[in-house]
Write a structure and sequence with these properties.
Helix content is 32%, strand content 25%. The termini are far apart. The chain folds into three domains: 4-161 and 286-354, FAD/NAD(P)-binding domain (3-Layer(bba) Sandwich); 174-283, 3-Layer(bba) Sandwich (FAD/NAD(P)-binding domain), CATH 3.50.50; 358-471, 2-Layer Sandwich (Enolase-like, domain 1), CATH 3.30.390.30. The protein has helices spanning 15-26, 48-53, 55-73, 89-114, 177-180, 197-208, 228-240, 294-297, 333-347, 376-382, 397-402, 430-442, 447-451, 462-471, and strands at 4-11, 31-35, 117-127, 130-135, 146-155, 159-161, 174-175, 189-193, 212-216, 244-246, 250-256, 261-267, 270-276, 278-281, 285-287, 320-322, 361-363, 368-373, 386-392, 408-414, 420-427. The protein is globular, with a radius of gyration of 24 Å. It contains 14 helices and 21 strands. The chain has a five-stranded mixed barrel with strand order 1-2-3-4-5. Strands 7-14-8-9-10 form a five-stranded parallel sheet. Strands 17-18-21-20-19 form a five-stranded antiparallel sheet, sandwiched between helices. The mean pLDDT is 96. By secondary structure, it is of the alpha/beta class. Helix 7 links the parallel strand 9 and strand 10 (244-246). It comes from Candidatus Tenderia electrophaga. This is Dihydrolipoyl dehydrogenase. Keywords: Cytoplasm, Disulfide bond, FAD, Flavoprotein, NAD, Nucleotide-binding, Oxidoreductase, Redox-active center.
């Protein structure tokens, strides 16, 4: 039998997979991308978790909830008085869905523009140069699998919500992140199990819309991987906003009825039952490698199910690469995309490189939290001598004019040569401001370089300038 042949077959159409496919095609490689995603209408859609039920819809809801919260609590301070304002959940969700469809449709258009073959269905490895593709079919017709030949294979199947036996997700009372993006009404009481990025962001959405949100965190430290300055400030801000954050609280079980969920927790007061209307299980994500046929194909996985790769994302199988959430490193869409580009360029014989030390992180609560590089606690633990500058947004003219004065900018530099080692921001538009820090670190800038860079006035970015000045104890406005 003659098989279809491609220079590259990508398995997975999320931010790692679709970007890799487009870049391969741009470089003149005949490329196919197999993607299994079906939207709620059972229609194939590109973009993976990020575009369909992750980054994009959550940000749409975060923005809506932020507008509503400001209308309820902040606009009066600006002299804007609105009476009779109400929340239309149906319209909010319709807007979210439209944002998603416009972007997933945009990816499909990019595939057509770049002549990427979109194969709608399931893909798995048959060997180092073959992939099995099983297309979606409608009705009772049994799908027929076919084998594809590929000189190179890129696995980008992403991740799935981690499951906990004691917290059985039913899609109604007990939900994962996907379910929390589609509530038809604001739950009176919402429990969020897990204090990571997903839990805090979705908890923030429903808290701003009026839900009594309790975040149950097993650890006794809030956001342990975040710089302590930011983590402590975030804990204070979220608590003041009304989010009930419970540290050192173990969730032992959750039992749903038709009306509520009884959650059994254990904290310093012992074991107790607490009642909620909804429970969001946000205990992390796991690599989506279960249906790849990894063992039979000889693909090496680690003990947690991640695909083992080297610095160029090469697996143990010749010509087989893996990127994104299925490999080591942070589960971030932009990290997956950069790995996809790097692999495509490597396959095409070009130089490729990823600087994992300058990958930015963002938590889209309000105020936003963003950082790049090392935290002060990491540097202390490793014995690196450093200096730091901190500048609060309450001393920034633009932040005060906006009425968003919470948070700070912190810059950490090497005590010997002044090279910037880390930048940490909590405050308005932190997700946008962090890009300046990433660029500075990519060019091995010093805090002096930032301090001598002219920043427009009045802007939020002046807080970055002042923090850089503060490294040498010469901030001008505090």
């Amino acid at each position: 039998m003659i098989m279809d042949h491609y220079d590259v077959v990508v398995i997975g159409g999320g931010p790692g997979g679709y970007v890799a496919a487009i870049r391969c095609a741009q470089l003149g490689l005949e490329t196919a991308c197999i993607d299994a995603w079906l939207d709620e209408d059972n229609t194939p859609a590109l973009g993976g978790t990020c575009l369909n039920v992750g980054c994009i819809p959550s940000k749409a809801l975060l923005d809506t909830s932020h507008h509503y919260h400001r209308l309820q609590h902040e606009f009066a301070g600006h002299g804007i008085n609105v009476k009779g304002a109400s929340l239309d959940i149906k319209q909010m969700m319709a807007r979210k869905d439209e944002v998603v469809k416009s972007l997933t449709g945009g990816v499909a258009a990019l595939f057509a523009k770049n002549k990427v073959t979109w194969l709608q269905g399931y893909g798995k490895l048959l060997g180092e140069s073959q992939v099995e593709f099983t297309p979606h079919t409608k009705g009772k017709k049994k799908p027929k699998a076919e084998a594809l030949e590929a000189d190179n294979i890129i696995i980008a199947t992403g991740s799935v919500p981690a499951t906990v036996d004691a917290l059985p997700v039913d899609g109604n009372r007990i939900v994962d992140s996907t379910g929390a993006l589609s509530f038809t009404e604001v739950p009176k009481r919402l429990a969020v199990i897990g204090g990571g990025v997903i839990g805090l962001e979705l908890g923030s959405v429903w808290s701003r819309l009026g839900s009594e949100v309790s975040v149950l965190i097993r650890r006794d430290e809030f956001l342990p991987t975040v710089d302590r300055h930011l983590a402590n400030a975030a804990l204070k801000e979220l608590t003041e906003q009304g989010v009930d954050i419970r540290l050192a609280t173990k969730t032992k079980a959750a039992k749903a009825t038709s009306r509520q969920v009884v959650v059994t927790i254990e904290d310093n007061n012992g074991e107790q039952d607490v009642k909620f209307d909804k429970v969001l299980v946000a205990t992390g994500r796991s690599p989506n490698t279960e249906n790849l046929n990894a063992e039979a194909a000889g693909l090496e996985l680690d003990e947690r199910g991640f695909i083992v790769v080297d610095e160029l994302c090469r697996t143990n199988l010749p010509g087989v690469y893996a990127v994104g959430d299925v490999v080591r490193g942070p589960m971030l869409a932009h990290k997956a995309s950069e790995e996809g580009v790097a692999v495509a360029e490597h396959i095409a014989g070009e130089f490729s490189h990823i600087n994992y030390a300058t990958i930015p992180w963002v938590i889209y609560t309000w105020p936003e939290i963003a950082w790049v590089g090392k935290t002060s606690q990491e540097l202390k633990k490793s014995g690196v001598d450093f200096k730091e500058g901190v500048f609060p947004f309450k001393a920034n003219g633009r932040a005060r004019a906006m009425g968003d004065m919470s948070g700070l900018v912190k810059i950490i530099a090497d005590a010997q040569d002044d090279t910037i080692l880390g930048v940490h921001i909590i405050g308005p538009s932190a997700s946008e401001m962090i890009a300046e820090a990433v660029l500075a670190m990519e060019f091995s800038a010093s805090s002096e370089d930032l301090a001598r860079t002219i920043h427009a006035h009045p802007t939020l970015s002046e807080a970055m300038h002042e923090a850089a000045l503060g490294v040498e104890k010469r901030s001008l406005h505090i």
